[in-house]
Design goal:
Elements (H helix, E strand, L loop, with lengths): L2 H10 L7 E4 L3 H17 L4 E4 L2 H9 L15 E4 L3 E2 L5 E2 L6 H9 L4 E6 L12 E5 L4 H10 L4 E3 L15 E5 L7 H9 L4 E4 L1 E2 L5 E6 L2 E6 L1
Parallel strand pairs: 1-2, 1-3, 3-6, 6-12
Antiparallel strand pairs: 4-5, 5-11, 7-9, 7-10, 8-9, 12-13
Bound molecules: ribulose-5-phosphate.
Ribulose-5-phosphate binds next to helix 2 and helix 4.
């Protein structure tokens, strides 16, 4: 079993019957969802999932995990998702898999958020991983130039075929190559105030528990 698998297995222990569970996106959340699917099939675990992407929806449906949309539930008990970077004060960058908008919608409507990562995601300060910004298509070239002028070193997120990546909500993604982010709160506020920005990948004061897969075993950190 690899590190991500072990961490996914551990994260699934947080789920109890009758819960409404946010289902994250990415290669680590994948293993959590696999384990959850097994528990639904083998233990009769009775849960309802709320997905964070079309990809996760397909995966959950293939495992017969019952699903509802965010609008169909009153609240979400627990969301388990991956992350691209977690700083030592537990702020995060997400969206490497392109799902940051739905991930943030689900996270911000959850009573509790658990991030499941391998140890490479734990960093001192955020910013080495490119910060994804989801933008509406109309006027996005102008917005790109604005971000360039600000010195944020933007690049378009592209598909393997070289086309612009389109999110589940039909928007583009711009990745900012920032190096180290001085003030995450300031940047978060600045980005969300730019007209055309739908959401960005800074997830601040979101996580309650981090499950870290390490070579020597899985660590659970309460924030
Ligand atoms: C997708 C995400 C993922 O949670 C993040 O990219 C981590 O993915 P992985 O577990 O594959 O490294 O934010 O938008």
């Amino acid at each position: 079993m690899n590190i991500k698998q072990q961490a996914g297995l551990k994260a699934a222990e947080f789920v109890q019957s009758e819960m409404i569970v946010g289902l994250g996106t990415g290669s680590t959340a994948y293993y959590f969802i696999e384990t959850l699917g097994k528990r639904v099939a083998e233990e009769g675990l009775n849960i309802t999932g709320v997905v964070t992407s079309n990809k996760t929806k397909e995966h959950a449906l293939s495992l017969d995990i019952p699903l509802k949309s965010l609008d169909e539930v009153d609240s979400i008990d627990l969301t388990i998702d991956g992350a691209d970077e977690i700083s030592n004060d537990f702020q995060g960058i997400k969206g490497g898999g392109g799902a940051l908008l739905f991930e943030k919608l689900v996270a911000s409507n959850s009573d509790r958020n658990v991030w499941v990562v391998d140890e490479s995601k734990c960093v001192g300060a955020l910013g080495t991983f490119p910060l994804p910004v989801e933008v509406v298509k109309y006027g996005s070239d102008r917005l790109f130039r604005k971000l360039e002028k600000k010195g944020y070193k933007p690049s378009w997120r592209n598909t393997e075929l070289g086309d612009r990546y389109i999110t589940d909500d039909g928007n583009y993604l711009i990745d900012l190559h920032l190096g180290q982010i001085e003030s995450v709160y300031h940047l978060s506020k600045e980005l969300i105030q730019l007209v055309g920005v739908v959401e960005h990948g800074l997830f601040l004061d979101t996580v309650d528990t981090v499950v870290v897969g390490k070579k020597e075993g899985t660590e659970v950190i309460s924030v």
